[in-house]
Design a protein that fits this description.
With about 150 residues, the chain is mainly alpha-helical. It has one domain (about 40-145). The protein has helices at about 5-40, 45-145. The mean pLDDT is about 80.
């Protein structure tokens, strides 16, 4: 099922029609000005038209740039914001995994230390048991002689 409202599906068609219509209107204005210039009707306005002809292309480029910036900057900014949020989430995940890994390493070190203590205690107990056995065997050897 289509969950988007009908107004959002018609917006791209309207948006793509605007540049085409602007191109047609702009071309028509240029043709009209050329025809008026050829006929001599603009001769009295030459001091006004000359700066427009000089600055016109630059102003057109500037206006086009501003229109493009106005049209495409918000989606670009939103996509950059989304990318930044995703990277922050990834960094948080990596930091959490690093912290968990660090905790695991610390737990392994503690367990290793405890294991060493147990081994040392077992070795001490074995030595003590051997000493007790020797002492018992000596006492039994002395008791047998009497």
């Amino acid at each position: 099922m289509d969950t988007q409202p009908a107004s959002t599906t018609s917006a791209p068609a309207k948006r793509s029609a605007i540049p085409a219509a602007s191109a047609v209107v702009g071309t028509s204005i240029v043709v009209l000005l050329v025809e008026l210039a050829r006929s001599g009707a603009l001769e009295q306005y030459k001091d006004l038209i000359a700066p427009l002809i000089g600055w016109g292309p630059g102003l057109l480029v500037l206006g086009s740039f501003l229109w493009l910036a106005h049209s495409y900057a918000p989606p670009l900014i939103e996509s950059q914001r989304t990318t930044a949020m995703a990277l922050q989430k990834l960094a948080d995940t990596v930091e959490h995994a690093s912290t968990s890994q660090h905790d695991l390493v610390l737990a392994m070190q503690v367990n290793s230390d405890k294991l060493e203590q147990v081994r040392s205690t077992v070795a001490d107990l074995q030595d003590h048991v051997q000493e007790v056995r020797k002492a018992v065997s000596r006492e039994q050897g002395i008791g047998n002689r009497e």
